């Protein structure tokens, strides 16, 4: 049974991972990838957040070309204007934003961004964007903080060129929201909720346990309102966005809506998609299932599962392990620690493999950074017992599970008794 959730989306998001921590984890992943492709590359926050920088790194991760670190500062130097969110303003924006414009465009349509070259028309659009951001912050301040943390840039499209796009975002170019030239501030506010929810989902999907490769083979959802068929990832993203829109619609009162508004339809659509997702939740990973059940009103632990699960399977090592068993970090393994303490690992393969470790495996892997390429179980156990502040027996079981997951994923080599 679905219906209006009893807990706000921003509260549930924060229970999984607070927005600042999620942004830091996403930056950590992109920094790791950049270093793997171009050793010595360092990404500032501005570079790590930039949609086109993330697009270029994503292409390299997918095996679609090499990463040229020299090009990254050039694309990130594109001029933006502050209207509560950074708005693309550079006269060359059409060239620099070619990828998102092409990816989101309907067939046969070539959207053009408004820029400072359009003079007063751009300035008027900028004013409406600024008013729209203020509306969002007025009616839903906590939601605004939660979602806008994941919006790195907004581009306004000339209405006559957009093909009726209304608003769009793409997981291939995360961080940028594209909107039609707005007539009302509420159109901007709604678009930022809708697309900001997608941007939030994109970050959750790369840092938490949401979907895996098996999602590509899962059943498709068919909408009752248009009979479009969506794969699982798109279905979950739409359900998540409709829940955010439904929550926002309750807060705005009699405010005038745009002609293409989805706010009055959001709750009904969220419920329809939610029912389907509940019937297919076995295709979701732990954090996605948790968020699904939390938002449809099931009683859940608000600590969530975030941060205590791993994208590497938990495997308990044989109890025959002795204190003198040695472990070595395998070559071509790269890793980086986020502020949260979680570690993201990259393995130089084709395509590159990147995944997050849980907290125990993160701590264990980080020990090689301190003492070189070889470690014994005994030395690790002494440190784990002290730092985890648990008994030696509890630390041993946790450490065996952590090392087991690192062995299974070929991050460390098999133990050798000495």
Protein model, in words:
This protein folds into three domains: 18-207, no CATH class; 211-304, no CATH class; 316-413, no CATH class. The protein contains 16 helices and twelve strands. A hairpin with a 5-residue loop joins strand 9 (333-337) and strand 10 (343-347). A three-stranded mixed sheet has the order 3-5-4, with helices on both faces. The protein has a three-stranded antiparallel sheet with strand order 9-10-11, sandwiched between helices. A two-stranded antiparallel ribbon has the order 1-2. Residues 304-314 have low confidence and may be disordered. The chain has helices spanning 9-16, 19-37, 45-49, 51-61, 72-76, 93-96, 98-104, 120-139, 141-148, 185-207, 232-251, 266-279, 286-295, 359-371, 377-388, 392-408; strands at residues 80-82, 86-88, 153-157, 167-168, 176-180, 221-222, 229-230, 326-328, 333-337, 343-347, 353-356, 374-376. The longest helix has 23 residues, at 185-207. Helix content is 47%, strand content 10%.
